[in-house]
Amino acid sequence: MPLADSFDSSPAYAFKVTIDGIEIPKVTEVAGLKNEVDKIELKQQLADGKYVARQLIGRAKTGEFTVTRGLTESKTISDWLKVVMNGDVAGARKNASVELLDYEGGTLKKYEFRNCWVRSVEINSLKAGATEQATEKFTICFDESEVT
């Protein structure tokens, strides 16, 4: 199957992140979008004595990605982490998606993640006299992913 080459690439600045259908505001960066499967190595001896090694496709792996956004008064993400820390597995699990957009705002590709929970929340370094924006970075773990 040849790859199409007549389409424009997605601009790196055009994306949106949603968690349980609610768009996360002020997102500045998404890192670690990755789908992966396990590799199984099969080593065998054939009837004629020849040694053969093969690589087989394994199960889909779980994963995680990181979202950075401008710090606001919203406590949604830190409250989500509190639910996780309290051990409420059912309440902590959410669905998330990251959509890559074209120049007109249409969806080029959508990464969908199921059974997500937040693993960590951190604030960037705060420096007296600095002119940069304060940000909140959080890591989301997922059980299943799909690209559409």
From TrEMBL:
GO terms for molecular function: structural molecule activity. It holds the Pfam family Phage_T4_gp19. Transmembrane segments: none annotated. This is Phage tail protein. It comes from Agromyces luteolus.
